[in-house]
Amino acid sequence: MSAPVILVVDDEPANLAQLRSILGQDYQMVYARDGAEAMAAVLKHRPALVLLDVGLPDICGYVLCTELRRIDPGQALQVIFITANSGAEQEAAGFAAGGVDYIVKPVHAPLVRARVAAHLSLVRATMLERSYRDAIQMLGHAGHFNDNDTGAHIWRMAAYAVALAHAAGWNAQRCAQLELAAPMHDTGKLGVPQAILQKPGPLNAGEWAIMRTHPRLGHDILSKSDAPVFRLAAEIALYHHERWDGGGYPYGLAGTDIPESARIVALADVFDALSMRRPYKEAWPVSDIVSHLRAGAGLQFDPRLTTLFIDLMPQLLQIQQRYADPA
């Protein structure tokens, strides 16, 4: 793996040389003597970290920091100010401009190395988190690639599920995991033929048998990971078609034997399916959806969760507007 790129911006050659001697053996170093060179260097070299002087000949370092972060292609650029301008007000200005640290000259080599290493570890963590979320988003979309649902569906449904989970007493950490896990509930549809997923009419018995394999298929895919989000996603994928009365699939579980995560997603998924227009149907009026959910309480749905969900209707309709399907 190549070493991270660090951009040093300072108009004094001695300062550039000093930082090269401190960091040059461990990192790829790029240098700029003013704001214009720094802007060009960010676009060309995409550094992970910038060491930035405040007193530049063509622009204030605080202003430049804001501009560098704005044009950063990866939107993850970390800026450390290295300057002779000391004092609480100067440091506050640096942090307000978007800097992540503030080192006062003359610099000490061990301090510079330690702070650079610490902030680069944060960059790696940020990029890993972004990659993690991107992978989840792609997997969620893949589960609906061959059916009639739009991309907005999975995130809208996840937002409904999180609202219900919060009302049901889930803590913030579990709700955050659910927000990422719920969109992957139909991952198993990757193994269902497109002709079945897009069939305009009712499925026959053989087609239903194939369709009902998708919870197990999704679980098989998602359970390959030990990460908590994927473990939760695998649980939801496997059980979200179970029914409170035991009439669901794949196992015919009933009541609280069905994991609460799956009971939550089942309600959110049905609400979204009924409330949105599709090529094969019109959107149901809210009053009809509420009647359908009430009728299903104790049969298809967890009665307690159904009551909570209906009570959340004003919030759910706000979520619906926020994640509206594209026209």
TrEMBL record:
<dbReference type="InterPro" id="IPR001789">
    <property type="entry name" value="Sig_transdc_resp-reg_receiver"/>
</dbReference>
<dbReference type="GO" id="GO:0000160">
    <property type="term" value="P:phosphorelay signal transduction system"/>
</dbReference>
<dbReference type="Pfam" id="PF00072">
    <property type="entry name" value="Response_reg"/>
</dbReference>
<dbReference type="InterPro" id="IPR003607">
    <property type="entry name" value="HD/PDEase_dom"/>
</dbReference>
<protein>
    <submittedName>
        <fullName>Putative two-component system response regulator</fullName>
    </submittedName>
</protein>
<keyword id="KW-0597">Phosphoprotein</keyword>
<feature type="domain" description="Response regulatory">
    <location>
        <begin position="5"/>
        <end position="120"/>
    </location>
</feature>
<dbReference type="InterPro" id="IPR011006">
    <property type="entry name" value="CheY-like_superfamily"/>
</dbReference>
<dbReference type="InterPro" id="IPR037522">
    <property type="entry name" value="HD_GYP_dom"/>
</dbReference>
<feature type="domain" description="HD-GYP">
    <location>
        <begin position="128"/>
        <end position="325"/>
    </location>
</feature>
<dbReference type="Pfam" id="PF13487">
    <property type="entry name" value="HD_5"/>
</dbReference>
<dbReference type="InterPro" id="IPR052020">
    <property type="entry name" value="Cyclic_di-GMP/3'3'-cGAMP_PDE"/>
</dbReference>
<feature type="modified residue" description="4-aspartylphosphate">
    <location>
        <position position="53"/>
    </location>
</feature>
<dbReference type="GO" id="GO:0008081">
    <property type="term" value="F:phosphoric diester hydrolase activity"/>
</dbReference>
